[in-house]
Amino acid sequence: MAPTPEQTLLAADPATDAQTLADLAHAEPELWPTIAAHPNAHPDLIEWMHEHGLAETALTVSPAPESATLKDGPGRAEIQIKAPAASTQRVSVLRAGLIAAAAFVVVLALVLVGWSSYATVSALVQGHQAAAEGSTPSSATDYRFGAAKTWQTKVKVVASASEGFAGYYARVQAYPGLWLVTWPGDDSGSGRLTEETLLGLDPDTGAVKWSISPALLECASSLAGGALVCVDIEKAALVVLDPSTGKATHSPLNGVRANSVDSIGGDIVLGYESPNATGITETVKRLAPGGRKVWEKSASCDGQLTDDGMQVSSNGARFADQVPPGSIHSHETLLLANCLVGIINLDSGVLTSDVSINWDGCYEGTPTDLDAFFFYGTDLCSSSKYPLIIARGGSTLAGMTLDTFLNSAASEQPIPTVWSADIAGASLDRNHFSGSVGVHLGSYALLASAGHLYGVDTRRGPRWEQSTEFSGDSQVVLLPIDGEKANSPVLALEADHQTIMRLDPGSGATRVSAEPAALPACPEGQTPVSFSTWDKGKGATLVCQGFARTVTVVLIVRGKTYTSASGSITPTGYRADFGGGLSVDIGLGGWAAWVVDGQTTTLHAASGGWQIGDVAARAYPAMNDKVEACPIGSYPLSLSTWHGGWLLTCGRAGATITKFVYVDGSSHGSGGAMTTQGGLSCGTAAAGVKVCVSASPAVVAFSSKGGPQTQHSVDANYVAGQRFGGAGQGTGAYGLADPAANAASQVAYLNGILQQSEAARTSVKTVIRSILHCTSTTGDVQNAQAVVEARTTELQALNSAPVDAVPGGAQLVAQLQAVLQDSLTADIQYVTAAGQVAQGQCAAGKSTYAAQQAFVTQITNEKTALANLWNGQIASQYGTPTYTQDDI
User: Fold this and answer.
1) C-beta of residue 725 within 8 angstroms of C-beta of residue 665
2) pTM score, two decimals?
3) With bands split at pLDDT 50, 70 and 90, how would you rate the model's confidence at 355?
4) 541: CB partners within 8 A, 6+ apart
5) Is 676 exposed, middle or buried, given 0-12, 13-18 or 19+ CB atoms closer than 10 A?
6) Are 164 and 438 in contact (CB under 8 A)?
């Protein structure tokens, strides 16, 4: 099909971007000469087009080995694929898995239960994808370093998944609003299938919409007529499900004979095999969702037996994946079986049988040396852009091309590698290494080992590593949502904890689009994790990180650019030495860069920047340029600023404060360690001033011995692990919104805390009634204990409640704290009294309760005075609810 006028214009338009050019090249080979001359064409794309003959529609491949031996899974029979000398080919060996989605073409197996080996062939071109990757900077919204855990779901699995077995049978299929996960089970690792659980998951939340267990179902790769069409393997018949509920529908397709199924254009295509007098008959047909037959094709083979005849076929009948546009019509594909062999038109069912079947070096199968290879059943290509990944035992990982592997295997020579890398701490023993723990994502790959996740560029080697929450490679199965896209989500199935995690990996671009033009791209193999600018862009920092925590730091200061390839990661930021007495400590998410030049330390407060996890570059709050640096050997943990002051905390680890420094108006002070006290971090300065800080609500408080407390609502802060915040920018106690720095907002926050006290008081009345009637139960004791816990939490919430904008706010909070502390003391005694009654000691329980009554009278008077103060000064002015002493 000739390119459309729009496509022709796009190919010639100087403004067309590299990604669009790559897509055009893949779709329209006739445009290759125009695209090759385009100024935005990526070099890899041009190389790919030259490799494939530019405007030629057929693919010319390099000489293939005389034969290659493949396996389709653990313990399965070998398949011999013969290849002639180099020639113009249209097909390539592809996956032995049952279902693979394609844009217009069905991937269908005419395979009976019990068939143990098969091969499929196609000419899927993947080179255009490598050309697109890395051609333009990633945006801050889609950029990631490592893999973010989007959600984690707990599931109930009948039988645990064993190594190897699980990796072969587990699968995930993506539909609109639904991910269908097949969780495999087996009998104590024997490899004999006993149970399978089919889970319908919400892709965004991980919520289980429905599940079927056991469910020996294999489903089409797309919906047909809005329904999920599957094959019941044991019954060899179709089952049609509602994708929103997993329940069977009343479709006329239910019960239709089938051994395999897929979908195309809303229709379904199915295949099955049956015995005849002299052998077998294979049938493939296309049906409309209502059951109407569009076409049917059958063929018979003499001397072949079905699975029921106790003879295992050597090749299963299958549809292959989509062939390249321009070589064969997009609705035609290759069928390779015992009886049905040739190119079949999926619209008409016409089969052209005079086709040569050869191997062109790109396939999705498993090489003979299964133990040596990283993955099986995923996208593996032999081109230089998509090497295979192998484990060489111990902790060594390597990449090699398929051509190299097969040629070396045939000659029994050592296998040369494209790259080799040691992954410290990984367990890659080739005799116990399961392909289920690795997954290809285009030219990228993920590896799970020993509780870590590794990102691997198949052409260059490992790029990043991170700790994860799963236990290790023997119990983890990784499943890609789209094995052709580098940033495709991946599901991690962990049998030990019966959990499914969604991981969203990033391929690690060398720069992000929000990065200032003055900053260079990161070195090859590293990716940006932070940048910041100051002085209207004249000063800047850039931090790049790669595999094994390698760090490069770029510093632009005083018009000069300095680069250190030996930077380090600190507990809360980054550090680098540039030689000649010049160094930089970057902290507080890039907000601050302390540059040391000889004996002089200069703070550069960034006006804007970006760090991993931000959806976009952002402006940073203003910072006092007098903020000091942390002592040598410690790092900034937090910085809080307000009008007229700031507080910096430092530590040697992420959460342990060993030093704090502050300026509050004309006062300047410092102290040693801070400890956590009721939701605050507090320490005592050298002058005896108690200093406390809370990240959210954002508040700093000072109090001297015997003197009143002075509060400051923080304009802006940065806290390690919590990032930027400030008054009105977070969540405080009980999930209440952090109040803004004004009286109305602070009163509303305080009222929210009081309402929690009111709820606790209701439970107290029930507990007291049970004590007085000698009817206390274990439940009453638990309720009383819950009141104690609620009062304790409430007191902690008051410790950090901002009220500096409320007239008399500090005195009001102090009075409320005193009342609640006394109430807590009484509540603790109610726990004891209820416990005594529940144990049959009614008299003792009543006595414990009676001993509190004088104290309770005092508390009642205090509550009455507090209620009068609140109602008269707060409720009347700010419109909050009024309270009685019973409510507090």
Assistant:
1) no
2) 0.60
3) low
4) 530, 531, 532, 553, 554, 555, 556, 584, 586, 590, 593, 606
5) exposed
6) no
Residue 526, classed as helix, strand or coil, is: strand
- From 214, 268, 265, select the one nearest 240 (Cα to Cα): 268
Range 248-251 contact pairs with CB under 8 angstroms and sequence separation of 24 or more: 251/225, 251/227, 251/289, 251/291
- What's the pLDDT tens digit per position in 807-845? 888 888 888 888 888 888 988 999 999 999 999 999 999
pLDDT exceeds 70 at position 863? yes
Q: Are 528 and 515 contacting, i.e. CB atoms less than 8 angstroms apart?
A: yes
- Phi/psi for 407 (5° steps) reads -65, -40
For residues 248, 250, 255, 258, the Cα torsion angle rounded to the nearest 10 degrees is -70
d(CA 661, CA 229): 66
User: Taking 50 as the threshold, does the pLDDT of residue 375 lie above it?
Assistant: no
Query: For the residues 140-167, what does the mean pLDDT come to?
Result: 66
Question: Please, are residues 79 and 117 in contact by the beta-carbon 8 Å criterion?
Answer: yes
According to DSSP H, which parts of 77-223 are helical? 127-132, 165-169
What is the amino acid identity at position 534?
W
Confidence (pLDDT) at 365: 34
pLDDT tens for each residue of 560-614:
999 999 999 988 899 999 999 999 999 999 999 999 999 899 999 999 999 877 7
Helix (H) or strand (E) holding 639: strand 635-642
Identify the pLDDT of residue 471: 56
Residue 294 · residue 331 · CB < 8 Å: no
In this structure, which long-range contacts are made by residues 728-736, counting pairs with CB atoms below 8 Å and at least 24 apart in sequence? Answer: 729/696, 729/698, 730/695, 730/696, 730/697, 730/698, 731/696, 732/696, 732/697, 732/797, 732/800, 732/801, 733/679, 733/697, 733/793, 733/794, 733/796, 733/797, 733/800, 733/801, 734/793, 734/797
Tell me: the pLDDT tens digits for 418-469? 888 888 767 665 434 444 577 777 777 888 877 788 888 877 788 777 776 6
Cis check: omega of the bond before 214, within 30 degrees of 0: yes
**Token code pair at residue 658:** 């060993």
DSSP 373: B
At 391 the three-state DSSP class reads strand
What single string gives the DSSP state of each residue in 294-323?
EEEEEEEEET---GGGT---SS-EEE--PP
- Cβ count near 234 (within 10 Å): 10
591 neighbors 573 (Cβ within 8 angstroms): no
- 236 with 113: CB under 8 angstroms? yes
Cβ atoms within 10 Å of 376's Cβ, excluding its own: 26
Mean pLDDT of 77-94: 27
Phi, psi of 283 (to 5 degrees): -130, 140
Q: Residue 464: what pLDDT? A: 79
Residue 678 is predicted with a pLDDT of 73
Cα gap 120→750, rounded to integer Å: 68
